[in-house]
Amino acid sequence: MSVVPVCYPERTIRYMNITFEPIGFIHSPFKEKFGIPRQPGLVPEARASLELVPPYNRPEAVAELEGYSHVWIQFVFHQILHEQWRPRVRPPRLGGNRRVGVFASRSPFRPNPIGLSVVALERVVVDGDRVVLELSGVDLLDATPVLDIKPYIAYVDSIPDAVSGFAPSAPDLRLEVGFSELAEGQLEAREDGAALRPLITRLLGLDPRPAYAAEDGRVYGFRLHDFDLRWQVDGDQVQVLELRPASSS
Ligand code: SAH
User: Fold this and answer.
1) Distance between Cα 8 and ligand 1 center (Å)
2) Which of 67, 172, 188, 206 holds its CA 20 to 30 A away from the CA of 198?
3) CA-80 nearest atom, ligand 1
């Protein structure tokens, strides 16, 4: 047997410039970063769809995918594409006051701003050249470009006794959510009101405020669907004040 020296193409790797093309885009109720769940699965009520674009919208490309309950979505953090990455980040999970290495975090501010989320696959819809995956439990901004889809395979991807550093378990639902009379009426008047209520309840129950800006009494807002959700925290209670129609859609 002869030993062949391995030539590691260091230069090539260092200067390699890789171009990827999105295979599809996300349609999600989350229209801005603030308010989006911090990880997938935390808000099962958060539904979105992934629409494949030409030339990837081929029904054959998703054949048998419906046999999986969950998929991995690889995507681009497109809204922060031009922001600088830093070797250390402050994860919200640590209250924003402790720094860890970027590679020990799931921060979007990475050298290559690529995201990875495991989400539930509710349905695969194929209608002519429309190929759409209906998803739930997403942490994805509207219009997110998607690079790849892979089936979640439990025996490979699930490691129940894995050790998870500074994030050993899911964050608590720490706030109790109530709705003002105005918000109640606005929910009732909407066709999607029945689905919106549990979505809003879970989103706000997890307390989306950044720790450094968490103030009682302050009115916070973020855009969801076609409205600005306005809310206020008092101790461990959060009150939904209003679903204010957004000025621009
Ligand atoms: N599960 C993914 C993402 C974790 S960070 C991963 O681990 O790689 C999740 C946060 O990314 C969300 O709370 C939201 O604020 C942000 N986000 C989601 N989609 C984004 C996008 N397209 N561009 C920029 N930020 C995005």
Assistant:
1) 34
2) 67
3) 24
Q: Are 232 and 226 in contact (CB under 8 A)?
A: no
pTM above 0.85, yes or no: yes
Q: Which residues have CB under 6 Å of ligand 1?
A: 33, 36, 38-40, 77-80, 106, 108, 115-117, 139-141, 144
> Is the Cβ–Cβ distance between 50 and 132 less than 8 Å?
yes
Distance 73 CA to ligand 1 centre (A): 12
Q: What is the pLDDT of residues 60-96, one digit of tens each?
A: 999 999 999 999 999 999 999 999 999 999 999 898 8
Instruction: Average the pLDDT over 150-179 and give the result.
Output: 96
CATH number of the 176-248 domain: 3.30.2310.20
Tokens at 83, concatenated: 């922001």
Domain residue ranges in the chain: 18-157, 176-248
Domain 18-157 CATH class label:
mainly beta
What are the pLDDT digits (tens) for 186-220? 999 999 999 999 999 999 999 999 988 899 999 99
| Distances in whole angstroms, Cα of residue 200 to Cα of each of 23, 48, 187 | 30, 15, 11
